[in-house]
Amino acid sequence: MPGWPYSVVAALETGRTSWTAVLDAVRLEPGADVAAVTTVQIREVVERLVAAGQWRPGDPRVLVVLDAGYDAPRIAHLLVL
Question: 42: Cβ–Cβ under 8 A, 6 or more apart, which residues?
């Protein structure tokens, strides 16, 4: 039985550690535009981090790292729009 595809956003710790914290997970519906769904998901997670005071102006920029299989150039383009 095939698994359900998900898009997961996790925070990665700095330094020499493998700890992560899952911040969001979205089930990808059949036929979904993965780049569009992921872009919305990234924006919403960053907005929640700002609202919670976890990121403020002057802090280092938020770094987004994608797993294999994502259309990184398209997601980058959609994020700057």
Answer: 9, 64, 75, 79
